[in-house]
């Protein structure tokens, strides 16, 4: 009973920020500053939504964000799984050294590579376009490490050898053996990548110079004006941006949890 009580309290504490966002999105900024705080829903949500749509090209920015998030997720799942399967089940010269170098890149903060990455995008002529967000994020060290650990423990070498003897080449073994066994891990990595891409703010703020290509997080940041902030409008925008993530998580929640728990057990 004590454990259940503690878990209930922890769950309520985790849900409180979402509840407070809903409260602020349905009230006015004056209500937010009221003391004692107002913890009941208001009737201003429709007005706040209209204010967001009037001040931000919301649906255009959401469309850009969907393109970036879906494209990035698809590329990460393909390239990371391909590299992870190679590291896990095939031996080649320098494999261990290359994997250590790959892991070492996880120690570098993303901000450290912003300048050379921007120079690279400028050399390609991609500054201001969505390609500058998609291509650099097409593979990452975390995804390769995560899937490599999964492949090592879920696929026996005998199974790979049997598929090879049956006439499957590398891509055949990858398609018919590796991918079916890694569905939970791929679901976890897919949701993790999609959420990270959807919420990314730092790199899009730097590289997106074309107003027509702004992603949702960058577009919503314009609601924070220098002379006074309408917090009810800001929270409404944040709430509207959160809805697609909630839908994605609800649809893939079972696979996400299964992948996370299996990775913890196998790792």
Radius of gyration in whole Å, from Cα?
22 Å
- On the 0-100 scale, what is the average pLDDT? 84
- Classification by helices and strands: mainly alpha
Q: Total number of helical segments? A: 14
Poorly predicted runs: 263-267
Oligomer: single chain
Helix content: over 70%
- The run of helices and strands is HHHHHHHHHHHHHH
Shape: globular
Largest sheet: none
Strand-residue fraction? under 5%
List how many beta strands DSSP finds. Answer: 0
- Gap between N and C termini, in Å? 31 Å
Structure description:
- With 267 residues, the chain is an all-alpha fold.
- It is 73% helix and 0% strand.
- It is built from 14 helices and no strands.
- The chain has helices at residues 2-25, 29-32, 45-55, 58-89, 95-104, 114-124, 131-134, 141-154, 157-165, 170-181, 183-199, 202-207, 216-221, 231-266.
- α1 (2-25) runs antiparallel to α14 (231-266).
- It starts with a helix and ends with a helix.
């Amino acid at each position: 009973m004590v454990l259940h009580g503690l878990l209930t309290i922890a769950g309520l504490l985790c849900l409180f920020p979402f509840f407070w966002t809903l409260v602020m999105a349905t009230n006015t900024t004056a209500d937010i500053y009221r003391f004692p705080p107002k913890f009941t829903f208001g009737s201003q949500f429709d007005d706040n939504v209209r204010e967001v749509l009037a001040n931000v090209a919301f649906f255009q920015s959401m469309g850009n964000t969907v393109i970036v998030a879906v494209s990035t997720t698809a590329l990460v799942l393909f390239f990371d799984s391909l590299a992870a399967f190679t590291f896990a089940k095939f031996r080649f010269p320098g494999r261990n050294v290359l994997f250590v170098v790959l892991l070492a890149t996880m120690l570098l903060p993303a901000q450290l590579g912003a300048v050379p990455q921007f120079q690279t995008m400028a050399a390609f002529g991609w500054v201001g376009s969505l390609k500058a967000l998609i291509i650099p994020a097409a593979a990452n060290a975390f995804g390769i490490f995560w899937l490599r650990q999964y492949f090592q423990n879920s696929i026996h070498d005998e199974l790979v050898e049997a598929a090879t003897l049956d006439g499957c080449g590398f891509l055949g073994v990858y398609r018919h053996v590796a991918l079916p066994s890694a569905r939970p891990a791929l679901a976890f990595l897919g949701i993790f990548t999609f959420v990270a891409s959807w919420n990314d703010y730092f790199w899009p703020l730097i590289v997106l110079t074309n107003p027509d290509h702004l992603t949702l997080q960058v577009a919503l940041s314009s609601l924070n004006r220098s002379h006074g902030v309408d917090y009810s409008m800001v929270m409404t925008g944040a709430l509207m941006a959160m809805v697609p993530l909630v839908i994605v998580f609800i649809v893939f929640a079972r696979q996400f949890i299964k992948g996370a728990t299996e990775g913890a057990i196998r790792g």
